[in-house]
Sequence to fold (453 residues):
Amino acid sequence: MNISIFELLTIGIGPSSSHTVGPMRAAKTFVDDLQSLLSQVVSIRVELYGSLALTGGGHGTAPAILNGLEGQTPEDVQPEMVPLRAQQIIDQQIIQLKGEHPIAFDMAHDFLFHYNETLPQHPNGMRFSAFNAGGQLLKTADIFSIGGGFIVKSDAFNQPLAEEKTVPYPFATARELLAHCKQHSLNISDIMLANECVWRSKAEVKHHLLHIADVMKHCIERGCTATETYLPGSLHVKRRAPSLYAKLSKDGTQKIQDMMNWVNLYALAVNEENAAGGRVVTAPTNGAAGIIPAVLSYYIHFCENATDDGIIRYLLTAGAIAILYKKGASISAAEVGCQGEVGVACSMAAGALAEILGGTPNQVENAAEIGMEHNLGLTCDPIAGLVQIPCIERNTMGSIQAINAAQLALMGDGEHLVSLDKVIATMLQTGRDMQTSYKETAKGGLAVNHPEC
Ligand code: SF4
Fold:
């Protein structure tokens, strides 16, 4: 299974890659698969299971699915239109399948939440069914949102996620990756770029990566200049990025003594945009979408001689590290808790920063290992099922931790006791040992202990 960086860093909408982006893709996939049956469909049923049912309300799952059934994609939909269009569908009780086939739709009857049931393959399961005028089932499909916006149909579980390509430097472990680097005297980003070129030309890869960096930059800018005081949802969480930005930018410069505040700001800005359902880059998930842009912005604004080439190599290295987690463990909080989101993003950013600051492949591996080691056991317990508390602030922690991990690794010689592969295996085992209530169910931790009575 070879994974392109553009499956890991995708442009989508908030607030959740597994509960918003994945479900929208799943719904669109289902209606696309109807093909010639579409004209016969008179009713549709959507069922959510497990974590999707439990936290889907706070994660915008239903609006995402309704828009997906109408043919919208996370990449192209106008983020602000998603809740508005969903409300119209619910109020008018008509949905336009694929944007072309109107049918009656009753939210209370046709959209079901199975709070106490989980489909066997994965905690984030959806079942879509389409019926004809006689009430007969035309088509049904179980589709799973397996983290980071990836979806898998039940019959394709454990199959390759995309058309299988033979890459010049295949790797599933850090050990294999480092062996390629050593044998060919290449950096991790070189390996990743060579592999990526089986999908598209080098110029296209670089162009797409700079575009992704641009979307990240604009997301930070929107978060810093947002005019709404509060984020959506029952918690009435205040946006902090605009006031922090106003404080820090008083004299128009980004002073080195304020570096930590700026990095915090970049992460807050992205995650507040994400919580508001805005346009973000899933990296590798939406809940943890602030860390890669925050550390990238640290490089751009606080490191000497930042270049476009450095930005490209940063994203390539981050992608290589994400592949190690995707293949060796999981990036789904419903499977492994927040280790798989903030932990993985921290590890990716730490390794990527180490590489562009001149680290050897062993130092990069060391940085990525440090980035995860101190996130082992991190649970997922978002209050009210909203991707706000602890998520937004947690991205500031992950960003600063990533910079520190890179610095620690760069001060060493790459030699260290616990390998990245061992820490990835430990992360997966810890996730398996973690009680289900701490894995994106809003049934444990802060989610049940707030507010205190
Ligand atoms: S607690 Fe972590 S894993 Fe859970 S929703 Fe928030 S950011 Fe994602």
Notes: The first strand starts at residue 10 and ends at 13.
